[in-house]
Amino acid sequence: MKTFYYLNKALGIILLHKKSIRSVAKDKNATMPAVFIGLIGMAIYLGISYTQNASPISFDTTSLPFSAFLPLYFLTGVLLFAFTHLSARLFGSKEPFIHFFRPIMLSSLVDLLSVFTLTPQIGFAVEIILLIWSMIIYYFVIKEAYQLSTLRSIGVLLLPLVVLFVMALTAGVFIGILIAV
To answer: What is the 8-class DSSP label of residue 40?
Structure first.
C-alpha cells in the first residue's frame, strides 16, 4: 500500500484539488487505503466525541452508554452514502458508487482536526468550521466523482440531507408517541 501517496491524495481532496478527486475516484488501488483512512477518521471523531462525554448525536446522552450510539452513527453514514448515490442517479449520473466512495472516505482525514474541538476556547468554532468545510468537500466530491453540473451537485448534496432529516423527525415523533402512551 502506497501510504504516503494516498495520504497526499487525501490532503489534495481536503484542499479541493479536482484532479486528486478524479484520480482517486477511478483508482482501483485506492479502495483499501480509503477504507483504512476512513475508519481512522471515524475512530478519531468517535473517540473525541466520547472524550467530550457525549455521542456524535447532538442531544444529551450522558446517561446512556456510548456504545449504544455506534450502530446509529454507522447506520446514518450508510444511509447518507446510499441516498447520495441514489440522488446522483436521479440527477443523471452514470458513475458507479465506488467512484464516490474512494474520495469521500479519503477526505475523512480532515477528522484529525477534530482534536482542536477539545480546546474549550476554540472548540465550538473549530467544530462549526469543520462542519462547513466537510460539506464543501462533500459537494466537490459529488461534483467530480459523479461528473455532475453545479446545480445537480447541489441537488445531490441537499436531497439526502432533507430525506435523513425527515426520517429523523418522523422517528422522533414516533418515539415520542410511544413514550407518551
So the answer is: H
Query: 10 Å Cβ neighbour count for 103?
Result: 28
Give the angle 117-21-81 at the CA atoms, nearest 5°.
65
Q: What angle do CA 37, 38, 41 make, to 5 degrees?
A: 85
CB 135 within 8 A of CB 84: no
Residue type present at position 45: Y
Among candidates 108, 132, 155, 122, which has minimal Cα distance to 14? 108
Q: Which of 130, 104, 108 has its CA nearest to residue 117?
A: 130
Nearest CA among 57, 58, 101, 55 for reference residue 78: 101
For the segment 142-170, what is each residue's pLDDT rounded down to a tens digit?
999 999 999 999 999 999 999 999 998 99
- Phi/psi for 95 (5° steps) reads -70, 145
Whether the CB-CB separation of 173 and 159 falls below 8 Å is answered with no
Q: What is the predicted pLDDT for the residue at 112?
A: 82
List the grid coordinates of 44: 478519531
Predicted TM-score (pTM) of the model is: 0.84
Torsion of CA 166, 171, 172, 176, to 10 degrees: 140
What H or E segment, with its residue span, contains residue 164? helix 150-180
Could you tell me the end-to-end alpha-carbon distance of the chain, in angstroms, rounded to an integer?
55
